[in-house]
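Quick question, first post here. What does this chain look like in 3D?
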Amino acid sequence: MLRDYGSRLLDLIDHPLNAATRLKFIAATADAITRWEPRLRLTRVDMSSGNADGTAALIIEGQRLDRPDQPFSRLAIPLS
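> Answer (accepted):
Ran it through. Tokens below.
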């Protein structure tokens, strides 16, 4: 029943992989994680440049607030 839950990433599927879409992917990712995941503090969100086959990856860096002894420094999520 939470209409706002999630992210805007699904709205960006099939958009051209250009600088504007790349920025929208980064913003949608950072917005959703900041809003819905209070256990994480983001330090960086980036997107790898697309390959010739159209694949790319989101790169997320940050700090876990609930388990400071188990930080994550880099997480790459493929977008394919």
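Strands lie at 40-47, 56-64, 75-79.
The chain has a mean pLDDT of 85.
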